Write the structure tokens for this entry.
Amino acid sequence: MTEPIVVSGFSQLSPLGLTIQEMDQSFLNNDTKATSFKIEIEGIDADTVPIFQTKINTNQVVAPSKLPLDRCTALALLVSQAAFKQADLNLSTIDHHRLGIFWGSGMSGAGSLDLASASIYRDHKRIRPTTVITAMPNAPAGEIALMFQAYGASITYCCACASSAVAIGEAYWALRSGRIDVAIVGGSEAMLTPGVVASWQALRVLSKITDTAHNACRPFDSQRNGFTLGEGAGAIILETHKHATQRGHQPKLALSGYATNCDGAHITNPNVEGQIQAMSLALNHAKLKAKDIGYLNAHGTATQAGDLCEAQSIASVFKDTAVAVSSTKGLHGHLLGAGGAVELIVALRALQTQLLPANAHLRQVDPKIHLDLIQGQSRSTKNLKHVMSNSFAFGGTNAVLIASLID
Amino acid sequence: MPQDTFEILRNLLITQFKLDQEIVKPESTLMDLGLDSLTLMEFIFAAEDAFSLRIPEEKLNDNLSGLTLGDVCKAIDSIKKQA
């Protein structure tokens, strides 16, 4: 039997909270606080959209490079440190040549670039000398690699909303191939600046505030009207089983399945066939049947087209197996490139606690959707052994991760 | 060397570049402060903004990292006098 790739630690910083315990509490309360973001840019009509912020000041985070940091990179550094600590790894004894960084971000330093553009074009001020270094997409991975002296790999995956899910899955294969023993994987996103938010608003995919800002995002609801942008980060420590056990760690969780494919059909529209294939490939990889999955964290962005497509895909793969499904984006928003990592952490936490988070703000299920959607409060379960997390991206990239309890 | 010039640079290095205040002295070279080619650029840029002036390259010799903070203060003060 192939030895598993184990999860030896994880951490998240998101609108759900700054610790795993705060995240648990957010799911118990089934509520988080979104805020109203007024887009005020001279020359364009002002508009207000809800956003989910991570309540942490990153101004004092010191970059290993000593250069100014984009918030996306600052969150990446903080969350990686927390996950590494939780895994109880020793930086002084680890083989740094066999430690790799696999990170995902959809827009990475877009916020810094947006503010730099404002500095030039609006304020007519010169631009900072290291703006490129701050804004480059692989800045988070690069700074994390500096922090941990990771000589094995520093790779950034940029595939929109599937970025960190792909990063996690590709790290699996790097570990499986024997190239490295330990990987710091995950993703971060923090681009809530006026120009970037305005760009998303222009695409007409953001939820409108119809009631209060905090419940604007309603995945699978008949009244859903788009997603709410969020910011956050998630980091997971993946490790070969052999490495974990040799250092005395007793792993209880494993990354057991991964698949990525591409719709190749439309630059933004989701595709039922592509999603079915991605979930089926991941199940095959994990050597599991659909009935083995006890909880599915859906991509569920709360767009009309996206939720309906995913509901059809899930129904097709799981057929009569009523897998419990929730999209947790109603509570943390769409974390874009960080979404895959944070949502896998939500699913990992479900394995640990045997509590399945609900679809927040789901009042009336879309009559065209036929899934076992968790409504109201978190659902208590028993014998949950395998969970799935979906990430479906603009550009056609689909990524599906499966995690399992180790017997 | 007017003390306020040094104090402004000192404050900049401690708050923006997160340097330990113990090592930020007039006699410290920029190399002593751990500033590499990129962080040096950022520091000079930030110093220019702080004093609303531009430091001509000839005021800073080729061995930029060998300059002391006191040297940078003198360069800034001489430009302020000319203004």
